[in-house]
Design goal:
Elements lengths: L1 H8 L3 E3 L6 H12 L6 E3 L3 H13 L6 E5 L3 H4 L2 E3 L11 E8 L2 H4 L1 H9 L4 H12 L4 H11 L1 H8 L9 E6 L3 H16 L3 E6 L2 H10 L4 E7 L4 H7 L3 E18 L12
Parallel strand pairs: 1-2, 6-7
Antiparallel strand pairs: 3-9, 4-9, 5-8, 5-9
Helix pairs in contact: 7-8, 7-10, 8-10
This protein binds 1,1-dimethyl-prolinium (PBE).
The site of 1,1-dimethyl-prolinium has 11 residues, from helix 2.
């Protein structure tokens, strides 16, 4: 059967990303729920995973990766999510903005912009693809902000400028979050903030905002992917709601891989 073959061909190994990502714990769960006892997931990073994906596709070899949208890999390659009949990876996810307690009083201008911030998968995809094509991260985000004045002004209209106040953003170096964090940093800089951006592991990103060490992040995937982190830290920070709706996570294969469901890995 197809799954048996692919298992042998790729040594029952799913190519994962950083160990702290929610999709990694969801994938551990998937192995249990679907009875994939022979399978394991390698931990690496988003960039290492996409590198392996690129190599496999070049050689038309089978591969199974932990994948998500928005992500440039779907515009670069013909890929498909494996069906997840047990809904281990949940339904659609939204990406939320979280800020530290007290931000609304202490930095009302930033708070308002972050609260207003909302864009689409397509918007984020433009920055991600530009970075993927070799543009510097900050530069790619700058160009998007300049080319999308109408949308950006919906977030900043009526917000007063500030004079070089420092604000710190935290994120994880997933391609999606590199795009969003660089983008919102420019928007905050344009109204006068001095912005620092620190890449952290997922749990430290939540912890930094919960302790007030960082001011904000735009990288919380809910209701499922970061549920455990929101349980740990959510009470100590403020959820400003979704900045992007309709994200998705799961197991992803190139179209030419002849299986359709996680069950086919059994
Ligand atoms: N992701 C991208 C993250 C959230 C953003 C799906 C890899 C995660 O799994 O935690």
């Amino acid at each position: 059967e197809a799954g048996g073959n692919i298992g042998e061909e790729i040594e029952y190994t799913i190519t994962g990303i950083d160990a702290g990502a929610g999709i990694m714990s969801a994938s551990d769960e998937a192995l249990e729920v679907y009875g994939l006892d022979d399978w394991s997931i390698t931990a690496s990073s988003d960039s290492a995973m996409t590198q392996e994906l690129a190599t496999a596709i070049e050689n038309e070899e089978p591969i199974v990766v932990t994948g998500w949208t928005p992500h440039w890999k779907f515009s670069e390659y013909d890929l498909k999510f494996l069906d997840d009949p047990e809904t281990v990876y949940g339904e659609a996810e939204d990406i939320h903005t979280f800020v530290r307690d007290g931000l609304s009083d202490e930095m009302p201008e930033a708070y308002e912009v972050l609260d207003n911030f909302e864009w689409s998968e397509e918007d984020m995809g433009e920055i991600m693809s530009s970075i993927q094509e070799g543009t510097d991260e900050s530069e790619a985000a700058r160009t998007w902000v300049d080319e999308n004045e109408d949308l950006v002004s919906e977030w900043t209209d009526g917000v007063e400028e500030v004079d070089g106040e420092e604000i710190s953003l935290v994120f994880v170096a997933w391609d999606s979050e590199i795009a969003s964090t660089n983008m919102i940093a420019h928007v905050l800089e344009d109204i006068g903030y001095e912005v620092t951006m620190d890449p952290l592991e997922a749990n430290f990103m939540f912890q930094a905002v919960a302790t007030g060490e960082a001011d904000a992040m735009v990288a919380a995937w809910l209701p499922l992917t970061h549920e455990h982190l929101v349980e740990d830290y959510g009470d100590d920070m403020e959820d400003l709601g979704a900045n992007l709706e309709g994200a998705r996570t799961g197991l992803v294969v190139p179209e030419y891989v002849d299986i359709d469901s996680i069950e086919d890995l059994q």
